[in-house]
Design a protein that fits this description.
Layout: E1 3-7, E2 10-13, E3 18-25, E4 34-39, E5 45-51, E6 58-60, E7 68-73, E8 78-83, E9 92-98, E10 103-104, E11 108-113
Parallel strand pairs: 2-11
Antiparallel strand pairs: 1-3, 3-8, 4-5, 4-9, 5-6, 7-8, 9-10, 9-11
């Protein structure tokens, strides 16, 4: 049974940083690409960043390029999202996603105050 558990969200001032974590279980984590999505108030869920299984390929939404970094530790079955220079428009629930299985985590709230 695939499980994804996000953590690390919270309230931060604009310009601050947060690091989100997603602990995965129930599958061979190192074999699959992983992604982070977010859903802001009244908005659709959008892709933020993705990472290949070996970390060699990463992709980012234009809105976060240069500010966010996705990474993974296959030994810990964990994918991370380092978020720097946060803006109020980054306020959203952030979700971890394993596309191969169509599985989502429960989400973690990030609120950026201006």
């Amino acid at each position: 049974q695939v499980q994804l558990v996000e953590s690390g969200g919270g309230l931060v001032q604009a310009g601050g940083s947060l690091r989100l974590s997603c602990a995965a279980s129930g599958f061979t984590f190192s074999n699959y690409a992983m992604s982070w999505y977010r859903q802001g108030p009244g908005k659709e869920r959008d892709l933020v960043a993705s990472i290949s299984r070996g970390s060699g390929i990463t992709n980012y939404a234009d809105s976060v390029k240069g500010r966010f970094t996705i990474s993974r530790d296959n030994a810990k079955n964990t994918v991370y999202l380092q978020m720097n220079s946060l803006k109020s428009e980054d306020t959203a629930v952030y979700y971890c996603y394993a596309s191969r299985f169509g599985s989502w985590g429960q989400g973690t709230q990030v609120t950026v105050s201006s």
